[in-house]
Design goal:
alpha/beta; 28% helix
Length: 201
C-alpha cells in the first residue's frame, strides 16, 4: 500500500516581532517568503500541499496565487500555533498516513529537506514521528502520524507538538538537515542575516 504524506505549511501568524510588516511577505530573491515555502513543498513531490492562513490572509493568498495548493483559513489564529495545527488536521485527506508540518518562516528548508523527512516516514510505513534536527537538536519540519491526530486536535495555545511527541510511545526518527531546522526569521535582524528584504508595500 502506498504511504502518502500531506504537507501543511503554516502561515497564519501575526509577525509581532517584525513591527510594521508581515515577515511572510518579505522577499528572498524577489520572491515572497510564503511563496518560496509553498513552492519548495510542492517541488518535494511527496503529497498534497495545504496552506493555513490567518493574519493578512488576503495578502498571503495573493502572494501564492496560481500555485497548486489548497488554502484553509484559521479564524482562531490569534490564539497561537496550536490552532493552525488543528485547522490543518481538519483537511488532511483520509488516504494520507500523516502530515508534515512546515513553518512558512523557515527560509533555509529546501525541497530536498522536505523530501528526505517525508521519505523517512514513508520508509517506516507511517508508524513513526519524523523530525528535522539541527546538530542533533529537534527542530522543524516534523511529520506526525495519523495515530496522533486525535491528541493533536486537543492542543491549545501557542504550542506545537513537541510535548505530545515526548509523551507518546511512538518511535521518533531524526533527520539531520543542519541549521535549516532551527532558523526562522522572527526579527528584522534575522531576516537581514538570512538575505531577505522587507516587502516593498
Amino acid at each position: 500500500m502506498e504511504i502518502k504524506v500531506a504537507i501543511a505549511v503554516l502561515a497564519a501568524g501575526r509577525s509581532t516581532r517584525m513591527g510594521s510588516f508581515n515577515k511572510l511577505l518579505s522577499r528572498f530573491g524577489g520572491v515572497p517568503l510564503v511563496k518560496q515555502s509553498i513552492t519548495r513543498a510542492i517541488a518535494a513531490g511527496r503529497g498534497p500541499v495545504f496552506l493555513v492562513t490567518g493574519h493578512m490572509a488576503d495578502e498571503i493568498r495573493e502572494a501564492i496565487s496560481g500555485l497548486p495548493v489548497t488554502i484553509v483559513h484559521n479564524s482562531e489564529y490569534a490564539s497561537g500555533l496550536s490552532s493552525s495545527i488543528r485547522t490543518a488536521l481538519r483537511v488532511i485527506p483520509d488516504d494520507c498516513a500523516g502530515v508534515l508540518i512546515h513553518l512558512a518562516d523557515m527560509p533555509l528548508v529546501t525541497e530536498i529537506d522536505i523530501a528526505a523527512i517525508s521519505d523517512a516516514f514513508i520508509c517506516n510505513e507511517g508508524g513513526v514521528v519524523v523530525r528535522a534536527t539541527a546538530c542533533g537538536k529537534p527542530g522543524n519540519p516534523v511529520v506526525l502520524p495519523r495515530s496522533l491526530f486525535s491528541e493533536l486536535s486537543l492542543l491549545e495555545g501557542d504550542t506545537g507538538a513537541r510535548g505530545l511527541i515526548a509523551a507518546s510511545k511512538i518511535p521518533v526518527i531524526d533527520v539531520e538537515i543542519g541549521r535549516a531546522a532551527s532558523y526562522d526569521v522572527d526579527t528584522p535582524e534575522a531576516l537581514k542575516a538570512a538575505g531577505g528584504l522587507r516587502p516593498s508595500r
